[in-house]
Structure prediction request, 508 residues.
Amino acid sequence: MASETVHHTAMTLSEHLPILEILVPFVAAPLIVFIGRRDLAWPIAFIASAASFVIAGMLLSQVIDGSVISYQLGGWAPPLGIEYRVDTANAFVLLLVSGISTLVLPYAKSSVARELPESAQTLFYALFLLCFTGLLGVTITGDAFNVFVFLEISSLSTYVLIAQGAHRDKRALTASYNYLIMGTIGATFFVIGVGFLYMATGTLNMADLADRIENQYDSRTVRAAFAFIMVGMGLKVAIFPLHLWLPNAYTYAPSAITSFLAATATKVAIYVMLRFLFSVFQPGFLAEVPTLDLILYPFAILAMFAASYTAILQRDLKRMLAYSSIGQVGYMLLGIALLSESGLMATMIHLFNHGITKAALFMGVGVYVLNGGGSFYHNLRGRGKTMPWTSAAMVVAGLSLIGVPGTAGFLSKWLLVEATLEQGLWPIALLIVASSLLAVIYVWKLIETLYLAQPAEGLQDQNVPLMMMIPLWVMALACIYFGFDTDITLSAARSAAEGLLAGSAGMR
Prediction:
């Protein structure tokens, strides 16, 4: 599909949409602290998130035909000035991140009120918006160093948000500290890689970088930059075996934060990896450097099996879902490693589908936790009978996680199998099916606990607030809707895959 870059000096409000996407939540975060009123913190956060969601939808509608929006901050033309660049790939991710945030915030209103003391709630919403801003900024910017800046904004706020889980379980502090150490190492590796790129090319603009390193594939500096950036982002993605920070972070963070991070943070990191692999270094570089064959292939398959097997052994549902996420990342990496349009389409769609699926599952776990029982399986026995609506939503999302036909998860796994068969890799296709059977085991373990076991004695179920149930069911119904209506996700994923495979041409 031919791509068209829209260069302009923004004059109207609609032409400022790329900067408004970031500016609205970025200004709202300190505003919450400045006002300092707990009753206004949530409305400000929700309005800012909903505005970003609407803007993301408008941006996607403008670029879904393959065109590109180039927004120049302060009127300074790239490569000297910072550029926000919107194409189908990052508009798709912007829509996912802002959509999840807008649904998680109503859920958070009730869960945060129960999990955190009143004195910590204002800070929570300010940090949430900073984390949200960082994820949006990482996605929309076309400047390599700007990626690092937004990455740190997101990461620093995430460390504190995870640590706020200490009000319920003190182990959140060590989980946050471990994530801080691993995240800092990842960010350091990434910025060293960006430094090497600047040393080799003298520019930080991604489109300009792509043009200048096109003839430097043999340069040791460029190859060192590639290695540092991939390891740095590998830590953020939680590629197996760089995933050690993830299970505890997801298990001990406040429920709303787990739902938000599981659905967005690793997805944004995968997008950054895609952007650097295909748009900056380009497919021609990947053909010369055996990274895909020697690293992504084996570790993707290892993640699909090792993480899924570990998920089966867990006795805590939150931790089980965390290991499941590491296994599902393996599917996305496998799609990248195939280096084909079908493979990238499967990765983009799985990125979206796994986001909505895992958001629903972690929201459901949060409801169980707040109902007094915790997330260990022995606390969930018989909850299918006493909490039918929550448990039914969990079953729907669980079926999507397996990839049952009629759910969103089926489409992405089917596309991944097709992509492997296109290249004659039928053993890999069999491995995808086999790893999905492991998902059947750990999802069945949940269903068996919910419906076939007797409820725990002395456990009194409480009414679940509608503000928690509505977002949970919106996510669960989305798992079914996107399993039948595939036009939006397929069109966006196809356009994104074509743009990424076009290399630097896809950024013009």
About this structure: The chain has a mean pLDDT of 89. The beta strands are 5-7, 68-72, 83-86.
